[in-house]
Amino acid sequence: MTKSELIEKISESLKLPAGKAEAIVNCVFDSMVKALERGEGIEIRGFGSFTVREYKAYEGRNPRTGETVHVAPKRLPFFKVGKDLRERVNSGAGTPLPEDTSPDEDMADDPELDGDDDDEPHLDA
After folding, report:
1. Which residue from 79, 81, 75, 82 is spatially nearest to 39, judged by alpha carbons?
2. CA 39 to CA 37: how far, in whole Å?
3. pTM as predicted
4. What whole-number distance in Å separates Cα of residue 32 and Cα of residue 27?
5. Around 16, how many Cα atoms within 13 Å sit in the side-chain half-sphere?
6. How far is CA 16 from CA 9, 47, 106, in A?
7. Directed axis angle between helix 3-14 and helix 18-37, to 10°?
8. Engineered SS bond to 40: which of 27, 35, 91, 94, CB 3.0-4.6 Å?
9. What is the fold of 41-81?
10. What tens digit of pLDDT does each residue of 61-120 get?
């Protein structure tokens, strides 16, 4: 979804002129940007949270030349999805994935998913 599509949705659902819906969207986004510029976090319950992560300066390498390059310290916004949104996205795409087990552990417990088909011959190297 693009910003213009969001404005159109708000305009339709609230029966507002597109200009007012655009002003609302811009106000929300501007407020979020200003909060992040000040280093504040933003938490939207059921959706997620935005924080600012600080990264120290380091010496990197140009992959083409191998030359050492100084990378300045920086602050970048980071988004962490909320539990409700994660569950809704997963339920829309099929069965939610279990959070506390890795796919390898799940396969090891289920003989049909372990990748070992006893009907097939095995080649040992």
Report:
1. 75
2. 5
3. 0.63
4. 9
5. 16
6. 10, 24, 50
7. 130
8. 35
9. HU Protein; Chain A (4.10.520)
10. 999 999 999 999 999 999 999 999 999 999 876 555 566 554 555 544 544 444 444 444
